[in-house]
Specification:
The protein is 6% helix and 39% strand. By secondary structure, it is mostly beta strands. It folds into two domains: 3-17 and 399-457, no CATH class; 31-375, YVTN repeat-like/Quinoprotein amine dehydrogenase (Methylamine Dehydrogenase, Chain H). It has a four-stranded antiparallel β-sheet with strand order 3-30-29-28. A four-stranded antiparallel β-sheet has the order 4-5-6-7, with no helix packed on it. A four-stranded antiparallel β-sheet has the order 8-9-10-11, with no helix packed on it. The chain is globular and about 55 Å long. It holds the Pfam family Reg_prop. Keywords: Kinase, Phosphoprotein, Transferase. This is Two-component system sensor histidine kinase/response regulator, hybrid.
Length: 461
């Protein structure tokens, strides 16, 4: 039989595969993550913060490394250069945000930076003792945007509101005494809720609320030093210092919300939630035996994902994912690395990407991500025999396109059934003069809801 005739009677398949971030498959577990840093060689293992910009580019703040850009293929590192005033002020970024003009703002422990990605230069904003319109402290903790796209900056000496027209700052909850500017005025976190109210969590002075109708007024009526806020000085800003002190809630590290009535608070003394209508704070209680220690943990990071699950990261006890509606929770702890691939219990930041991946920044454990699709589709793992599964535990979780089309011959067609079909490929495939797949028997697996196909064979895929 001629080679041409053999080819016409056999199956000729064209497979287009676009995959990213191959990692090892996980053993069965209620919840598991992928260690992005191992597969992609992230510069540095202590990731302080993560941000996805409008272009889908990931920006990382990596301790002792600097600001890191990841475009899906390569890393670009922006480091401090003491001889270059247009470089970033510190190699310790702790928060990244993008403004409406496309500039990136990077908070560090040595000032605030505005990055012009087109020019590749940073503009620095630093504390100046002689300028009351400068940043009130070089220790910057957080940045958010308000309803008018103004930037609010949390520092170790109060809050600073950026005034773009003069490129200076309006100060709030600060200590104006230049001899001791950071006298117990440290801000732990800022949060803007669905009604555009701004919540300010402090380390020693409780929780503040700046309503939209307040900060929409002229600033002279409400942007005051910390000592000006009291029960007798009405500014439209609320404070729960004494209430939190009585409840044992101290050192607020993070705030988030999604439900109009509920605000979640990560603190040094546990995880709390505030019910606005009741004006009451509640300590969230973990009931499962393996989670009881979380009732005493220091929580650092919070995220409410697109499915309304609450992700809460601790300083040293791992990560918990809570379904508030069902009061159920899953727990990721590095002590169970063999089952969840989690390498660090120190969770520094959490972010959900536009594609639904939840990114987890850790100290000493690099960057992880969780693909929520794996709760819907099973993970393929190494099997006892080749016919039952993959021949090794290599898995590419982020398959964006896997299409199988085969034709020319009596077995032509595309598998659309829910049962596996076998395809025999005669000889090795060649593409660009390189062997792609050796001769073997392949199985087209079940078609997914998105119209994609899985493909397996008796040797590794």
């Amino acid at each position: 039989m001629s080679s041409r005739k053999a080819a016409s009677e056999s199956i000729l398949a064209f497979i287009f595969i676009w995959v990213t971030n191959c990692v090892y498959a996980l053993s069965p577990a209620p919840l598991s993550s992928h260690h992005f840093s191992s597969a992609n060689k992230t510069p540095g293992e202590s990731v302080q913060c993560i941000y996805e910009d409008r272009l889908g580019i990931l920006w990382l703040g990596v301790e002792s490394t600097g600001l890191v850009k990841y475009d899906g293929k390569t890393y670009t590192v922006y480091k401090n250069n003491p001889e270059d005033s247009t470089s970033i002020t510190s190699n310790y970024p702790v928060k990244i945000i993008e403004d409406t003009d496309g500039f990136l703002w990077v908070a560090t422990h040595n000032g605030l930076n505005r990055f012009d990605r087109h020019e590749g230069v940073f503009k620095r904003f630093l504390y100046d003792e002689s300028d009351p319109a400068s940043l009130s402290s070089n220790t910057v903790k957080d940045i958010i945007r308000d309803d008018s796209d103004r930037l609010w900056v949390a520092t170790s000496n109060g809050v600073n509101i950026f005034q773009p027209e003069g490129e200076n700052f309006l100060r709030l909850l600060h200590n104006p005494d230049a001899t001791k500017p950071a006298n117990d005025n440290e801000i732990g976190d800022l949060h803007i809720d669905s009604a555009n109210n701004i919540w300010i969590g402090t380390m020693l002075n409780g929780l503040f609320l700046v309503p939209l109708e307040t900060y929409s007024q002229p600033a002279l009526s409400w942007a005051l030093p910390l000592k000006s806020y009291s029960t007798t000085h009405h500014t439209g800003i609320r404070n729960w210092k004494n209430v939190l002190k009585d409840r044992g809630i101290n050192a607020i590290r993070n705030i988030t919300s999604s439900h109009p009535d509920t605000v979640w608070i990560a603190s040094q003394s546990g995880l709390f939630y505030f019910l606005k209508k009741q004006n009451q704070f509640h300590h969230y209680q973990f009931q499962k035996t393996e989670q009881e220690k979380l009732n005493r943990s220091t929580f650092l990071s919070l995220l409410i994902d697109s499915e309304q699950n609450l992700w809460a990261g601790t300083s040293s006890d791992g990560l918990v994912i809570i379904d508030p509606g069902k009061e159920e929770s899953d727990y990721l702890n590095a002590e169970n690395y063999s089952s969840n691939q989690f390498k660090s219990n120190a969770i520094r930041d959490l972010m959900e990407s536009r594609h639904g991946l939840v990114w987890i920044a850790t100290k000493f454990g690099g960057l992880h991500y969780y693909d929520k699709r794996q709760k819907t589709f099973p993970v393929l793992r190494k099997a006892e025999t080749p016919e039952e599964g993959l021949s090794m535990n290599l898995l590419c979780p982020s398959v964006k396109m896997l299409t199988v089309i085969y034709g020319w011959g009596p077995k032509a067609g595309v598998s659309t059934s829910t049962t596996a079909k076998k395809i025999h490929l005669p000889g090795s495939w060649q593409m660009a003069n390189q062997e792609v797949f050796p001769a073997t028997e392949w199985k087209v697996l079940q078609k997914t809801a998105t119209g994609h196909f899985g493909l397996g064979r008796n040797a590794a895929l």
